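Hi everyone, sorry if this is the wrong subforum. Our group has a chain we'd like a structural model of before ordering constructs, and none of us has done structure prediction before. Sequence below.
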Amino acid sequence: MRIGIGYDIHPFVAGRPLILGGVEIPFERGLDGHSDADVLTHAVIDALLGAAGEGDIGHHFGASDPQYRGVRSLRLLEESWRRVKARGFRVGNVDATVVAEAPPLAPHLKGMAANLARALEMEEARINIKPTTAKGLGPLGSGEGIACLTVVLLTEAGGDGA
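Answer:
Right subforum, don't worry. Here is the predicted structure as tokens:
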């Protein structure tokens, strides 16, 4: 078994859609970033790559590379998964905590989990996404952006990772 931790944070910006786990969430601002700035999916990618010993999202999909400008992060997750799967791993589970004062995320969790499960070719039941707030503390607490911390467990393909 191998465990990886991923973390991502992006500030809010006007004029962009808010995308989390590949779901467009109605809100007056989106997240600023080179791609679609999907902090949940970025944290999953970093945890996945970290568990496999494959570096991080910036190593494979650099922000200075114009081909990734505005790219859907789920596409990057699919590409990362192909790389990790080729090394003989499967995902045991994904556990993510999304820190956001607003908007409310609970109505969108099932769609986020379904998108991540599809990209990782795994059962949705092995993906857990927990929304929380920063309780008004610091930049996240004042609503300046969203962060996500994720843990991924990898097992050898054919091994018991359920």
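For your construct planning: The chain has a mean pLDDT of 93. The helical segments are 39-52, 57-60, 73-86, 109-120, 138-141.
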